[in-house]
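_Full entry_
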Amino acid sequence: MWIIIVIFSIAVGQYAAIGWYVMIIHYFLILVSFYMWHWQCHNYLGWNKKCYEMHKRHHWEVYPPSDYFGVKNAPSKEKTEKLEW
């Protein structure tokens, strides 16, 4: 995977006339940003109550651990509607 990221970064760098490392930096910044967002979804911090509850519902009701390798039964419309803001 890392070889693909480096090759892609070099190709984009050549095409866009930027440093070959710019896409690698961008990739890691996005990765860290997503990690921080996902961490706050799993931890109730006071200000993220709605996000925390929706993510908990996502993990425990709609896609429970018993369906880790794939949903045995597609989630019902009722369950998916609960996830809408």
